[in-house]
Design goal:
Elements (H helix, E strand, L loop, with lengths): L14 H6 L2 E2 L8 E2 L4 H14 L9 E2 L6 H19 L5 H15 L9 E2 H14 L6 E3 L5 E3 L10 E4 L2 E4 L8 H25 L9 E11 L4 E10 L8 E6 L8 E6 L6 E5 L12 E8 L5 E9 L20 E3 L2 E3 L8 E5 L4 E4 L4
Parallel strand pairs: 3-4
Antiparallel strand pairs: 1-2, 5-6, 7-8, 9-10, 9-18, 10-13, 11-12, 11-14, 14-15, 15-19, 16-17
Helix pairs in contact: 3-4, 3-5, 4-5, 4-6, 5-6
């Protein structure tokens, strides 16, 4: 049975909320329906929003988001729902606001084709920014069927206006706008501009769009024979980088103190990057340790910044205090065997799930 978007599906009062409400009965496991599960419904949503959406005059003609942009679009939808639903419930969740701004940045940093109209995902991102800076909490509500909506004032017949001190005033004897009211409106506009600038800046990692490195593995390496442990991170090069670029890894020190750093040159013909930290001590199991990886151009400009964590499933105290055996090529010193030449050691590698988050490079 085919589905058709009708006017009541656009009762959210803002495009971003109408998009969020495309999931019907969101929290009812048996009755939950995601209208965007059908790609064709995303295309027809843009057409219907041109007819029924509360912001249809704001963005001009809406066109569907291209297929390669739809994952980011769905991520924006989910972040929008979480943030504004928490706002209605008066929950203090700055983390959800941060997630929403990141989702907006993810959409806006991708080059968009606007020749035929405004892409649906781009318009939704701008709508969400307007909601962040604009409506007071009292204007947001959760309607039947768990939809989120914003109440908008009904349009009034337009009056002749005059300008006075840069503030708009009716000329029918009503009191002029106070400086406080005018300042509030100016502040809202400034907030929208600032949030938009921040979101775009947060997304501008590279002009070419894609990040040059992709995280493929992360682990602690415990070498029992030589009694040492290190971080190991592996990455694949997905985009070319300028000649002379480097990758800098910063590892949390499990023993405390300053982080451990490692810098490596990126070679054009090598597509796999392996980063192994200096030796570490005091690793505790099930504790996440932070790792930051930054790609820098030959002039020191940051091309990508990636943050992740590494978790071990054993404590490092299972390792011997000193190497238990000798191998050729190793020399005996008072503190025990030193060096790794000719080690050929068996490494017990404890993998953790690859869960990384790309964050914006500093401006």
């Amino acid at each position: 049975m085919s589905f058709t978007w009708t006017a009541h599906r656009f009762s959210g009062g803002a495009l971003a909320l109408d998009v969020a409400n495309s999931v019907v009965m969101r929290f009812d496991a048996e009755r939950r329906t995601d209208r965007f599960d059908d790609p064709a419904a995303i295309d027809t949503f843009a057409e219907a929003a041109n007819l029924y959406g509360a912001e249809r005059n704001r963005f001009g003609t809406l066109v569907p988001a291209k297929s390669e942009r739809r994952n980011a679009f769905i991520g924006l939808r989910e972040a929008t729902d979480r943030h504004f639903r928490a706002l209605v419930r008066t929950e203090d969740r700055p983390d959800l606001l941060a997630d929403l701004l990141e989702a907006i940045a993810t959409v806006l940093r991708q080059p968009a084709d606007t020749r035929k109209g405004t892409p649906l995902d781009v318009a939704t991102a701008h709508s969400a920014l307007g909601l962040i800076a604009g409506p007071e909490r009292e204007r947001l509500k959760i309607c039947p069927q768990l939809r989120v909506a914003v109440s908008r004032p009904q349009p009034q017949p337009e009056q002749d206006v005059v300008r006075h001190g840069g503030l708009r005033q009716p000329d029918e004897g009503q009191a002029p706008l106070s400086p406080q009211q005018g300042g509030t409106e100016a502040m809202k506009s400034a907030m929208i501009s600032a949030l938009l600038a921040a979101a775009v800046a947060a997304g501008c990692q590279r002009e070419s769009g894609r990040d040059p490195l992709e995280l493929t593995g992360k682990m602690f390496v415990f070498n029992y024979r030589l009694a040492y442990a290190t971080y190991m991170v592996t990455l694949n090069k997905t985009e070319p980088v300028p000649d002379g670029s480097t990758v800098v890894a910063t590892f949390e020190n499990p023993a405390g103190g300053n982080p451990l750093t490692l810098e490596r040159k990126l070679f054009p013909k090598l597509n796999k990057v392996v980063l192994e930290s200096p030796d570490i001590t005091c690793v505790k199991k099930q504790r996440p340790y932070a790792v930051t990886i930054e790609v820098k151009g030959p002039d020191g400009t940051s091309l990508q910044r990636l943050e992740t964590t590494v978790v071990s499933d054993i404590d490092q105290d299972v390792m011997p205090a000193k190497p238990p055996c000798r191998r050729s090529g190793l020399r005996q010193e008072p503190g025990g065997l030193q060096g790794r030449q000719g080690a050929g050691a068996l490494r017990d590698r404890h993998l953790s799930d690859v869960k990384s988050r790309s964050v914006a490079a500093p401006a």
